[in-house]
Amino acid sequence: MVALSDDIKEIFTKTKVMPMATASKSGVPNVAPMASIQLVGDDTVWIMDNYMVKTLENLKENPITALYFYDQETKRCFQVKGATEIKTSGPDYEKFRDQVRTKGHQYPAKSLIVIKITDVFECTPGKEAGKKVR
Ligand SMILES: Cc1cc2nc3c(=O)[nH]c(=O)nc-3n(C[C@H](O)[C@H](O)[C@H](O)COP(=O)(O)O)c2cc1C
User: Fold this and answer.
1) Taking every annotated instance into account, which residue ranges of this chain make up the domain Pyridoxamine 5'-phosphate oxidase N-terminal (predicted)?
2) Which end of the chain is more exposed for a tag (fewer CB within 10 A), N or C?
3) For residue 63, what are the domain limits?
């Protein structure tokens, strides 16, 4: 597992919506916007499955995911890759379900996707682009 630095954590936390990429076992890519996202500590991301279809199917057969987040203000951008676990019960699931539902009772909060961060890359345009930072 890999920990985000404080400056990267700040940009992550500011970001409202993140594209979440997955791939099927045979390598067909998929990307979908996600907003029910929370950074837990400095090495774990929680995403609530409210309306995932292909994303969830892909994670069941290929548990690796990638996200990116971009800060308009500083123009900095980072890609995060991680290994996922799908939780439909237990204290973590219940905690995030209750949190998500305080934002909107309509959210089905079907499962919690736990992402353990394995890699972080810079995607800010320029000389640092593509570099592994963590
Ligand atoms: C701004 C925005 C935020 C979204 N946030 C979430 C989310 O946090 N969780 C979720 O399950 N779906 C979320 N959705 C809906 C999914 O992106 C949508 O259901 C999409 O079809 C999922 O992709 P998939 O069908 O390829 O799995 C969001 C959609 C938008 C436009």
Assistant:
1) 5-121
2) N
3) 6-122
